[in-house]
Structure of Bifunctional NAD(P)H-hydrate repair enzyme:
Amino acid sequence: MRNAHRVEQVRAAEAELMARLPEGALMQRAAAGLAATCARLLTRRRGRVYGSRVVVLAGSGDNGGDALYAGAVLARRGARVSAVLLAPERAHAGGLAALRAAHGQVVLDQEVGLADFSRADLVLDGIVGIGGRGGLRAEAVPYARAARRGTVVAVDVPSGVDADTGEVAGVALRADVTVCFGTYKPGLLIDPGAGYAGAVQLVGIGLDLPPADVSALQHPAVAELLPEPGAESDKYRRGVVGVAAGSATYPGAALLAVAGALHGGAGAVRYVGTAAEEVVRRFPETLVTEGGPAGAGRVQAWVVGPGGGEGARQALAEALASDVPVLVDADGLTELGRLGPGALAGRTAPTLLTPHTGEAARLLAGADGGAPPPADELAAARLATARRLAAAYRATVLLKGSTTVVADPGGAARVNPTGTSWLATAGSGDVLAGLAGSLLAAGLPVLDAASVAAYLHGLAGRHAASTPGAPVTALQVAAALPAVWRQVRASATADE
Ligand SMILES: NC(=O)C1=CN([C@@H]2O[C@H](COP(=O)(O)OP(=O)(O)OC[C@H]3O[C@@H](n4cnc5c(N)ncnc54)[C@H](O)[C@@H]3O)[C@@H](O)[C@H]2O)[C@@H](O)CC1
Ligand SMILES: [K+]
């Protein structure tokens, strides 16, 4: 599990540790870790550190201090290091002195700085870290825009990315590698910020941290959560997932949701809706029932809404009246947006909403009574949007898109690290809904079911795309689920 903490949590932990350590010790730890990563990258790129060109972009705070100290270490190993000071009168005094003592150059002319930047083997972005507010200031913008040939290493966070949210106001430095200190920051895991961070490496500095603000699953945690049948399990004990999906207009959604559900670990899939004939023809193992969820017999979770069309309203009402977890997707979300949060008020079991940003906009409008906010604004503030919806509907929300975010009404949040743009294909959301519903029926808590589903779905998208090396269909994503399930399980066995 990758755990990320907000700036205020990091600051509190740092203050507590600094009080027990000699002055500057923490910065030395950070700078040493940073310099070690830079040396590795230079060695990989040029065979050695000696003689390589390194540019340090140093802002006015401690982030610049880290970068200057790391620059000094590289200069002592023979790198030709120049530091571009973006606020010369406020540059970190200790870091600057260390760099000068190691015979590093200081550049004050922007033209020269930009030329150095463009031809450096390695650039250290120490303009601003967790103390950054708002977008990059004007003097730093040319560096974010300039062409460059070398590797950019961001110090703690790419400058211009909001550490708490991943939001980017204006331009930001695009890094190949980000070396962060003490803990991951949410902004390194959530797009658009995650897209600027490149590969993220964590350097421990000994912080004693509270529970994470946001976390991202990795293989071992997913492997532990995957449901596994015990010796006693029959199909009913393993859980039955009910899928109310598809309509005369969209029969395909039924097939795709069932395909996802069949691979999610529930013991059986019960389909209700108008596409029963097609479903059984394609997936004979599916149980089918005429009518709606109310008359369908006992299930352990409902999936309602994919391709639901005109029947979505009734199916939603019947599923929500049950006392089992309900996943609401697609047309079900449109209906829920019309009804507002009151429709979930009487629920005794968890509800999971799986909107993309357009559906999220309609849900927010349903909660606030206003006009739907622009979907691109919601996409740019993914964490805040998911949390806002979770709070308004008192439901767990899986907000789909580039970096899928899952937020619980209690405040816990997970971000999905396996996403891929291959999943932006018709019907892929139906597969995800079925998969997550199946994990709910198998007994996973709702935050786990949602985040494990997003994780497997992302891996399956990558797997399916890599096999033909071409665009994938949603059915191919569903078909890849067993392979990625095995891959995750195998990695856990290898770790044991
Ligand atoms: N506090 C600590 O103990 C440690 C801090 N460390 C480093 O210190 C950083 C935090 O240092 P600071 O609190 O000094 O903050 P930063 O260095 O991140 O930024 C604050 C400075 O940048 C300026 N600034 C704010 N927004 C800006 C913007 N948009 N564009 C340009 N300049 C802007 C501010 O005027 C201020 O001078 C961390 O990110 C990390 O790199 C590490 O050395 C580890 C230990
Ligand atoms: K930075």
